[in-house]
TrEMBL record, chain A:
GO biological process, one term: DNA-templated transcription initiation
Keywords: DNA-binding, Sigma factor, Transcription, Transcription regulation
Name of the protein: RNA polymerase sigma factor
Molecular function as annotated in GO: DNA binding; sigma factor activity
RNA polymerase sigma-70 region domain sequence ranges: 24-91
Source organism, top-level taxon: Bacteria
Keyword Phosphoprotein attributed: no
Domain RNA polymerase sigma factor 70 region 4 type stretches: 122-172
InterPro entries, alphabetized: RNA_pol_sigma-70-like, RNA_pol_sigma-70_dom, RNA_pol_sigma70_r2, RNA_pol_sigma70_r4_t2, RNA_pol_sigma_r2, RNA_pol_sigma_r3/r4-like, WH-like_DNA-bd_sf
Provenance organism: Pontimicrobium aquaticum
Statement: the UniProt record of this protein carries the keyword Transcription regulation: yes
Similarity annotation: Belongs to the sigma-70 factor family. ECF subfamily.
Species lineage: Bacteria, Pseudomonadati, Bacteroidota, Flavobacteriia, Flavobacteriales
From TrEMBL, chain B:
Name of the featured protein: HEAT repeat domain-containing protein
Organism of origin: Pontimicrobium aquaticum
């Protein structure tokens, strides 16, 4: 039972009660791991990134205030952590829509996929080809507690812009899917 | 809602960004226009497949996190000598309890095996039992002081296993009932204390605790218990509590019922 709010726990951590971070870790570990894993598809790296998020929480706990919303704060940290790792590893898997055809010619064998799983397989490929920024907004919008308003705060834009970004990301995913499907 | 609006709000619907009214409107549109179900189902498939195959993190992630947390705690906070001794003793308590139980079990087995006709002398059994009770009693007091709510719940469960409680345990349970931040732990403390209402100290302590309780769940549990105990002294306290601001309606009703039941 969650008797203490995330905010109360984090204020406890800020006041020096590090044990409370354990409860926050238990509440957020799966969501953070899922976020990282779907960004980089590397489970091992994602576990390290979850660890990095909590290390940063301890390092920057003095910046947390009573007015902060914990879920927004932690995903801001997660987003920066993901971005840093991305820069460090230079694993830019993003390809523009124009590159998709080339990419398919070179590596894919969609015809080999069993028919009933074909759509799912193409969709997976389409997700893989989606830019990290677009993947990120879709992933964030899949968390129940993150509405457009919170997503806007995390990625640094207005609520309306966050909505537009999510819609554009989904549309691009559809376009990539259709491009792959029409081949 | 028309088709254009429907198309523009599919993503808002899936990401749960629509108000309740808009959600209903959206659902109604699909019921009235089943031809658009395929479009909706396709969008839903996109949505659900997006992070469908996320594995679970491994237990190593937990181990690394808690190791990091411990090392950070150690490096940022000077651990006092008293705390270190407490930790050391706490470790020993668990071991002591395990050793005592294991030794008793082995002793019982060997004794029975060597001389099955003779049973343990009752006096020795009583001494061994007393030793276990003592260890358990120390364990309870130590566990009740732990930061983890699970550990504190475990402590209260240990009390339920005991035949007799000491005054120290009773005091520790009251300390928990009046100060623990976790509602579950406080409710368990009430359950544990319920077994000792034949002791006047416990009855008085329970009545005195009522006024400190802010959680409606605990207030309701207290109201039930006071009816069970038919504790007339509780009536005035419940009346006082009901008058307080921000009292939960259900808890208030329950306390009013209890006042009636006790008065009868």
């Amino acid at each position: 039972m969650n008797t203490l709010s995330d905010n109360a726990l984090m204020l406890g951590v800020k006041a020096g009660d590090n044990h409370k971070l354990g409860l926050l870790y238990e509440r957020y570990k799966k969501r953070l791991f899922g976020f990282f894993y779907n960004m980089n598809k590397d489970a091992y790296l994602s576990e390290d990134l979850v660890q990095n998020v909590f290390m940063k929480i301890l390092k920057y706990k003095h910046t947390y205030t009573e007015e902060s919303k914990f879920v927004v704060w932690i995903f801001q940290i997660a987003r920066n952590t993901s971005y840093d790792s991305f820069k460090k590893n230079k694993k830019n898997v993003h390809k523009d829509i124009e590159d998709v055809e080339y990419s398919l010619n070179a590596t894919d064998d969609i015809d080999g996929v069993i028919v009933k799983n074909e759509n799912t397989a193409i969709l997976k490929k389409a997700i893989e080809l989606l830019s990290p920024e677009k993947k990120e907004v879709i992933l964030l919008s899949k968390f129940k507690e993150l509405k457009y308003k919170e997503i806007g705060k995390i990625i640094g834009c207005s609520e309306g812009n966050a909505r537009i970004k999510v819609h554009r990301a989904v549309n691009e995913l559809k376009n990539i899917f259709l491009t792959l499907d029409n081949r | 809602m028309n088709y254009k609006e429907f198309k523009e709000t599919i993503v808002d619907y899936l990401s749960e960004n629509l108000s309740e009214d808009k959600q209903q409107e959206f659902k109604q549109f699909l019921v009235e226009n089943p031809q658009y179900n395929i479009e909706f189902e396709t969008a839903k498939l996109f949505w659900s497949e997006f992070d469908n195959e996320t594995p679970d993190p491994t237990p190593e992630m937990d181990m690394k996190f808690y190791a990091m947390l411990n090392s950070q705690t150690k490096s940022t906070k000077e651990v006092s000598i008293i705390k270190s001794i407490e930790n050391f003793l706490f470790g020993s308590f668990s071991k002591q309890l395990a050793y005592t139980l294991a030794t008793l079990a082995i002793g019982f087995f060997i004794g029975n095996h060597i001389n099955p006709s003779k049973s343990f002398p009752e006096k020795e059994l009583a001494v061994a039992k007393q030793e276990i009770e003592n260890v358990r009693s120390q364990l309870v007091v130590t566990l009740l002081d732990q930061p983890s709510a699970n550990k504190r719940l475990q402590a209260v469960n240990e009390v339920n296993k005991m035949d007799n409680v000491t005054e120290t345990i009773i005091k520790a349970l009251f300390m928990t009932l009046n100060n623990d931040e976790n509602v579950n732990v406080r409710l368990s403390a009430i359950e544990a204390l319920k077994n000792y209402t034949n002791i006047s100290l416990v009855r008085e302590g329970l009545v005195a605790s009522i006024i400190n309780q802010e959680s409606p769940l605990v207030q309701i549990a207290m109201a039930d218990l006071m009816v069970e105990m038919q504790e007339k002294d509780a009536v005035e306290i419940f009346k006082e509590l009901i008058e307080k601001e921000n009292i939960n309606e259900s808890a208030k009703e329950k306390m009013e019922e209890s006042i009636q039941s006790i008065a009868i």
